[in-house]
Design goal:
The complex is a heterodimer of chains A (329) and B (526). With 329 residues, chain A is mostly helical. Chain A has 14 helices and two strands. Chain A has one domain (48-298). Chain A has a two-stranded antiparallel sheet with strand order 1-2. The longest helix of chain A is centred in the middle third of the chain and has 29 residues, at 100-128. Chain A is globular. In chain B, strands 6-7-8-3-9-10 form a six-stranded mixed sheet, with helices on both faces. A six-stranded mixed sheet of chain B has the order 16-17-18-13-19-20, sandwiched between helices. Chain B is α/β, with parallel strands linked by helices. Chain B has 17 helices and 20 strands. In chain B, 45% of the residues are buried. The chains are: A mainly alpha (329), B alpha/beta (526). Chain A binds chain B through residues 12-13, 16-17, 19-20, 192, 195-198, 200-201, 203-204, 207-208, 210-218, 269, 273-274, and chain B through 301, 303, 322-324, 326-328, 333, 335, 339-347, 350, 353-355, 357-360, 362-366, 368, 387-391, 407.
């Protein structure tokens, strides 16, 4: 009887797992459909294109992870694009013409820089109690300004080993190295966090700050930690920019708002407390695939941007309807 | 001028309202004559506020009729109610904090001259109309609300706990002004927990119990007891759970209290929170709404720092800067509002594990196997139906409440602070919670239990303290703590008690009595 109960519980918990990750699974299915569609309209789509896809989405995927962490904690970070620009130009400038070994030191230093940037963002949010959207918007100007001070025009260089980390295939020609880099980053940063008290606390403050406080969670410190993790991931995103392009660009790309879009599309609630980082990563690939398909279909580039926005809203509406029906059932 | 077809100004019959499975009003009736001050009475949750909200159009009733001047009408919104002459002053000030007083008045189209007149009558003549509402003290805001309502000369003015937050001198003025409404064309519906105020200004009282009107009483000398009796109704004897309370009352003289509070004060609500809580006992806390019990529990749980007084845990003074400090000192808090305690979108496991992990000081990986064992143990102990455990919001209210308790039981309990833990949950779950609290006490834990259901005191507690006006005013042994005794104590109905506020109210009552007599004579002359 106990066995039967245990089995029942296991089945129930499996069902709960599926239900909780329904959004990510649905998104994955959507991605598969898109890939098939792409292969149909462009039979020549092959390993090289897949490698290019991996390299080109990596910066945005890392930015989406950065954004997801802070959004889960109930905040938002509008300075991710600027932090990426700053870390990218700093790494490209320091690495230019230097040895491969020196590149390692630069990478470590830039990651530390990301931690500091995140700590400043989080510290200001926690101490001043100014809304995070305002603090990080203001800091986005500061970080972007610093980036231009470091280097007024695109340039610099990147260590070869760094480029090799994200460009080209690994093992099978269909598997981009960038994908492996992504998996390694998630395994090293996100999984330990989720498994520890910090992860639980991050979800707790995002879900219900009062309940978390009453349960003895140090709300301020946890929020600060979330921003630090975001800064670290933004630095990784900046490094991947340098690695994939070989230079540093001081002007922030569209990464901040794209990361918010990816986070929302990836099933993370902007109200906090719900979702994970896998959904946003898949969402980034989906967004990129849509753009690629538009190119293959010879759609006007400007119209393609419009279409991307419409698809974003459409998918979210569809998802909300689905959620609503489930809540009623 | 034609005479109204009925002599009733306002008549509500058979009004009902349910929220989901909760029945707020079953069959409430209320008949108000012109020129009377009519009290609406009832214990916590009897449906008074719901009825007032329905009368003013803030809430739509499910059934029943409401007639004004003999004409049936359906009120869709507070604005419509106001145009129809029904105005309410709610428990919370209804001024927009970021606007100044003058703009607030403009917003509700309040005529300025009558407003100033009533402000003077209410003893607040020196108010600066340009000051921002958020900078005006709470008591003054209540007065402004009242003056604003009086200025538009409503047919029926409803006052919901108007005097609760007022100091004695203002209470006196308010009661005097309300008393003056008697004998005219207009009426007042007056809700208050203070029987002495009812006796001072009201003509009749309608008593609600569990959403039903159970009686209408003429307020005269000695009607207090009749009102209390109606509020209580037939006292149901059920669940004699006290059998296992063998050791109760027999406390060795040398046992030190687990928790001792001495003269705790906070804000304007709590003035003297003093009691001792011993290991192995369940101590009940009984109070009407807003007597300072919320503040007391917030202090004990570490959410709020007291402005005065002393708190000792196991004889050593403590001062909590954060709930985490209280939790480490063994004081855990079970809130009535589950939305304030749970992570609704997260799983049962996470909800139980959250406070339990905060006791560990390490930030490393959580030992999942051990955590699962602890969580499973707690789920089994409380018989939580965790089939929908992926997200706590999908659980029933009773199961959610069990989770809020399980999360503390999982880590071992020394002192549990329960704030109305059985509010709005079914009887079976209630009994499980009673049993659990007794078991905890039996195992040596100390339990502090605030309850709005008075019969819980005899079911679960060893003794009870009563808070009134921010002070602990009585301690009653469970054997003597039947509902009438508790309710009398909660209303502070003791002739020997001398409390300044009451003295002031009594003085006001005398003055109003004289005024009423004068008014009656004037009426007779007409």
């Amino acid at each position: 009887m106990t066995n039967a109960t245990a089995t029942m519980n296991r089945v129930a918990s499996l069902g709960a797992d599926v239900r909780r990750n329904a959004w990510t699974l649905g998104l994955l299915a959507f991605l598969v459909v898109l890939l098939v569609f792409t292969k149909v309209i462009q039979p020549g789509y092959g390993p090289i294109a897949a490698q290019g896809l991996g390299t080109s989405v990596l910066p945005l995927a890392l930015a989406a992870v950065a954004q997801a962490i802070v959004v889960i904690a109930g905040g938002i970070d509008l300075s991710i694009g600027s932090m990426m620009a700053l870390t990218s130009v700093v790494s490209a400038t320091l690495m230019k013409g230097q040895s491969e070994e020196f590149g390692v030191a630069v990478v470590v230093g830039v990651l530390l820089l990301g931690v500091v940037l995140g700590a400043v963002n989080g510290g200001l949010v926690v101490i001043t109690r100014v809304p995070d959207i305002v603090v990080t918007l203001a800091m986005s100007f500061v970080w972007a300004g610093f980036a231009l001070l470091v280097r007024a025009a695109p340039g610099g260089g990147a260590a070869l080993w760094l480029k090799d980390l994200v460009i080209g295939p690994i093992g099978n020609e269909w598997i981009p190295r960038a994908a492996i880099a992504m998996v390694v980053v998630v395994a090293i940063i996100w999984i330990p966090v989720v498994r520890s008290r910090l992860g639980l606390s991050i979800y707790a403050i995002g879900s219900n700050q009062l309940a978390a406080f009453r349960s003895g969670v140090p709300v301020g410190r946890t929020k600060l930690a979330a921003y630090v993790l975001t800064g670290l991931c933004a630095a990784l995103a900046g490094l991947s920019l340098t690695a994939s392009t070989g230079i540093g660009t001081p002007v922030p790309g569209p990464y901040t708002l794209m990361s918010v879009a990816a986070v929302v599309l990836g099933g993370v609630s902007l109200a906090g407390g719900r979702g994970g980082v896998f959904g946003p990563i898949v969402a980034v690939v989906v967004l990129q695939m849509i753009r690629t398909d538009m190119t293959f279909l010879n759609v006007n580039t400007n119209l393609a941007v419009v279409a991307q926005g419409v698809i974003l809203i459409g998918v979210l509406m569809f998802g909300s309807l689905f959620e609503l029906r489930r809540a009623r059932a | 001028m034609t005479l109204p077809t009925t002599d009733l100004l306002l008549e509500a019959t058979g009004v009902s309202k349910t929220y989901g499975a909760v029945v707020a009003l079953k069959a409430a009736s209320l008949a108000v004559r012109p020129g009377e001050v009519h009290a609406l009475m009832g214990a916590n949750g009897a449906g008074k506020s719901t009825l007032v909200k329905i009368l003013t159009g803030a809430v739509r009733p499910d059934g029943g009729t409401i007639a004004v001047h003999g004409k049936e009408r359906i009120v869709h919104s507070p604005l419509e109610a106001r145009r129809g002459g029904l105005v309410s002053v709610y428990q919370e000030p209804a001024l927009i904090p970021d606007l100044d007083i003058r703009s607030n008045l403009r917003l509700t189209e309040t005529p300025l001259e009558p407003f100033r007149y009533w402000l003077r009558e209410l003893g607040l003549e020196d108010l600066n109309l340009s000051s921002q509402a958020r900078r005006v003290p709470l008591a003054s805001l209540r007065i402004i609300d009242l003056a604003r309502a009086l200025a538009i000369e409503p047919d029926v003015l409803m006052l919901d706990e108007m005097t609760a937050a007022l100091p004695a001198n203002l209470t006196e003025r308010v009661l005097e002004v309300i008393g003056r409404q008697r004998g005219g064309e207009r009426s007042v519906i007056f809700i208050s927990h203070r029987l002495i105020e009812i006796a001072a200004v009201c003509d009749r009282a309608t008593v609600l119990r569990e959403g039903e009107t159970v009686g209408v009483v003429d307020v005269t000398e000695g009607s207090d007891d009749r009102i209390v009796e109606l509020m209580l109704g037939q006292i149901v004897k059920e669940m004699p759970a006290g059998a296992e309370r063998a050791a109760r009352g027999m406390r060795a003289a040398d046992v030190k209290p687990r928790l001792a509070a001495r003269g705790l004060t906070a804000g304007t609500k709590l003035h003297d929170g003093s009691f001792e809580l011993f290991p192995g006992e369940v101590l009940g806390v009984v109070a009407l709404e807003g007597q300072g019990q919320d503040e007391l529990f917030d202090i004990l749980a570490g959410s709020v720092r007291p402005s005065g007084g002393e708190l000792l845990v196991d004889g050593a003074p403590v001062s909590f800067r954060h709930p985490a400090d209280a939790i480490r000192a063994g004081l855990v808090y079970v809130a009535a509002d589950r939305a304030e305690a749970l992570l609704m979108q997260r799983s049962v496991r996470e909800n139980i594990a959250l406070p339990f992990t905060t006791r560990l000081r390490n930030w490393g990986l959580i030992d999942l196997a051990r955590e699962r064992k602890t969580v499973d143990g707690a789920v089994a102990t409380l018989q939580i139906d965790a089939r929908a455990g992926g997200e706590v919001r999908r659980l029933s209210g009773g199961n959610q409440q069990k989770v809020t308790i399980a999360r503390w039981v999982a880590g071992g309990v020394r002192t549990m602070l329960c704030f109305d833990p059985t509010r709005g949950i079914d009887i079976r779950t209630k009994q499980q919670i009673y049993r659990l609290l007794r078991d905890l006490a039996g195992a040596g834990a100390a339990v502090l239990l605030y309850t709005s259901e008075l019969k819980e005191v005899q079911l679960v507690c060893d003794r009870a303290i009563v808070i009134f006006g921010g002070r602990v005013v009585a301690e009653i042994d469970a054997a003597d703590a039947d509902e009438p005794a508790l309710l009398r104590a909660a209303y502070n109905l003791r002739s020997d008690a001398v409390i300044p506020e009451l003295a002031a109210v009594e003085a006001a009552a005398v003055a109003i009595g004289a005024a009423a007599v004068a008014g009656d004579e004037a009426e007779g002359d007409r």
